[in-house]
Amino acid sequence: MIPSSTYRIQFGPGMGFTQAKDSVAPYLQRLGVGALYASPLLQATPGSTHGYDVTDPTSVSAGLGGALARQLLQRRLAELGMGLVVDIVPNHVGIAVPQANPWWWDVLRYGRESVHAAKFDIDWSRGPLLVPVLGDDGLDDLRVEHGDLVYYEHMFPLAPGTEGGTPQEVHERQHYRLVHWRTANTDLNYRRFFDITTLAAVRVEDPDVFEATHREVLSWGVDGLRIDHPDGLSDPGGYLRRLRDAAPEAWIVVEKILGVGESLPVSWPVAGTTGYDGLREVCGLFIDPAGEPPNAGSLQYLENRCKVAAARTMLRAEVRRINALLPFDDEEAVIELLSMFPVYRSYLPEGREALEHAAAANPQAVEIAKLMLADPHGELATRVQQTSGMVMAKGVEDTAFYRYNRFVALNEVGGDPSRFGVSPAEFHAAMQAREAGSPTTMTALSTHDTKRSEDVRARLAALSEVDFETPFGRWTERKPLPERSLTRLAWQTLVGAFPISGDRLRDYLAKAAKEAKLVTSWVDANPEVDKAIEAWPEDVLGDATLMAEVAAFVARITPAGWSNSLGQKLVQLAGPGVPDVYQGTELWDFSLVDPDNRRPVDFELRKALLARIDDGWLPEIDATGAAKLLVTTRVLRLRRDRPELFTGYRPVPAQGPAAAHALAFARGENLVAVCTRLPIGLDAAGGWRDTVLPLPAGEWTDVITGRPVSSDAPLLSDLLSQYPVALAVRS
Fold it and tell me: Which of 373, 113, 316 is nearest to 324 (CA)?
């Protein structure tokens, strides 16, 4: 079943199956949601707050309530007329707590003779399995307790018959070797998820492994599946075809990050992506190209440098594994090839152009590409393609996008921060292509991975309409940070998420600085710099004079940010695709990157506000965010109750002096959505004046306000007098 819309719920210690069934599901039904879209629900590492570290794919999470509670939730959703979409993780399992993962524990105990050894991508030719957990004390603190090898909080099993002697002697008899944690980036013999050694990749391309990892979740009969990180798989297309055969009726979307202009491989039997491509287009629509800040240098050059650094350092183990497959020894050629991919990966034989582009500048890389093309399903081609996506993610998303901070509203995965905004013409072309090619893809504005929530980006978009450089320069002179680009990021973050607590801002900036890896990092911390960054938020927030100036600036752009937020929401919810609402974002939500964006959601508040709206309340656009809830529920209910309205797509151009400030489109013949662009510029030019929006003849009603639309060419000053958005339906 293709849902009319989805609502993402982050399950974890504060949200289990019973709470979702009793409290959340009825609210979602009233909101107008088509399906609850759940984060991973299988057994995960004890205490997991996200579920992506699955430790036992054969069982549902006991911490979330267990199998019966999951069944009762799904039954309740069906009674309410809603579906269930589940996030699944085919690429890896969690091994942070070895004893919690029965497959990994068995492999540690029995080595390559384990019945589960073939489930993991381990290079046994290089000796025992390397486990990078040791600190600088080496094996000094190793001990044997209750038949296990113990290192601080880490426990490891003993192979049969290996007891006796010192703990160090026992360790030497095992099928694994505990090594220093830094070894992971240079010398590892199991495949992992990116550079996270506590997530071990599984060989889901093996039919037996596919069956073992998918049997449980496929038995639930869910309506849809969200596939995490398909680019890590050896053969994403083959996996998706096997999944389609196993779940022929399911709506399937993939967490595939598309570059600008890139499309999914046509051979993948899926509805589309999880929506980052749509996020870029919608957000860009509300950015004024005339307000582009000074150029911060070539983003492409920076990205390439960061990708080279990622391949050379944190992913060197993967580079060496690829190099070992070559008939010549040239790790630098491997690094060059991986860092020059223009997209995350190719899918040979599809995507040959991307591979040839990556290889073009280096003669040895050309030879590697020839070997790959000669055997597109061989181990060399597979490992290069799996690793290129890792290099892109770690080099661009997790490094360059924390350094290139001239305008951070654009720094989302799948985006191009060097492209300042999206024109209406580009937006309409993208929507028409989506409606024609992937009308049931997911669309999103916020996710559990976005670096900034939709409302933070919407407020930051307003900076393109005002002078931010002058106050930024003044503030920076008073309160600089140890690194220039971090300073720029910090002030935009403070403005975009204001008001924000010192703790939240401190944690965010600490993470951002370590991801940027310019003056400190996760691997090589700089205590002096870290201390200065930690002190900055309270120093700034405690300066009453400075904060009065910041607050006044934020107050000036806040109405424009609200207008942009409502415009984004309407365009996403009414446009082509299946829209997802990330938990809590039906009200204003000024969250930053994970884990900030997994904070608990106040559903009781949302229920109370929705009840008032159902009683006829048309809220003001104010700090409560109730106006956003109004827009959200009106569109979601219409999509659910009258799906026939949401077909086709064509631009509806406004006419008049302020036409450039309106973005309107029709879905079919009887629905037109319109929103306001660049509201500060609109006000400065004198408002809508006599700008009109021509509509086909008939009786039209704005379903957001319930008011009739006055004529066949209504004045936008009338149509948008109460809210900066309208959704007109012809009776």
Answer: 316
